[in-house]
UniProtKB/TrEMBL annotation:
UniProt-listed Pfam families: ZapA
Superkingdom: Bacteria
Keyword annotations from UniProtKB, A to Z: Cell cycle, Cell division, Cytoplasm, Septation
Role: Activator of cell division through the inhibition of FtsZ GTPase activity, therefore promoting FtsZ assembly into bundles of protofilaments necessary for the formation of the division Z ring. It is recruited early at mid-cell but it is not essential for cell division.
Complex formation: Homodimer. Interacts with FtsZ.
Protein name stated in the entry: Cell division protein ZapA
GO BP annotations listed: cell division
Localization, UniProt: Cytoplasm
InterPro entries (UniProt xref): Bac_CellDiv_Activator, Cell_div_ZapA-like, Cell_div_ZapA-like_sf
Gene3D superfamilies linked to this entry: 6.10.250.790
Length: 86
């Protein structure tokens, strides 16, 4: 499949059905949706009184936090690799 062809993938996140359209494979989109769904239920179990929009924001904050930590680790490892090459 070419990188420009749009793929429509049906997913369910926190009981809501969505059609995600993009260039990633359906398997990738389903994996992302499953992880978001799991994180929402995890946060909800710790905070049962959250409304859905606050739950969604906390899920996004958690995802961005994880992304930043991984990006910082990646940058650190790249610098370490460059140092070792010298």
């Amino acid at each position: 499949m070419s990188g420009n062809q749009k793929i429509r993938t049906p997913v369910t996140i926190y009981g809501q059905h969505y059609i995600i359209t993009g260039t990633e494979t359906s398997a990738h989109v389903k994996k992302v949706a499953r992880l978001v769904d799991e994180k929402m239920y995890e946060i909800r179990s710790a905070n049962p009184n959250l409304d859905t929009s606050k739950l969604a924001v906390l899920t996004a904050v958690n995802a961005v936090h994880d992304y930043i930590k991984l990006h910082e680790r990646f940058e650190h490892l790249e610098k370490e690799l460059e140092r070792l090459k010298e």
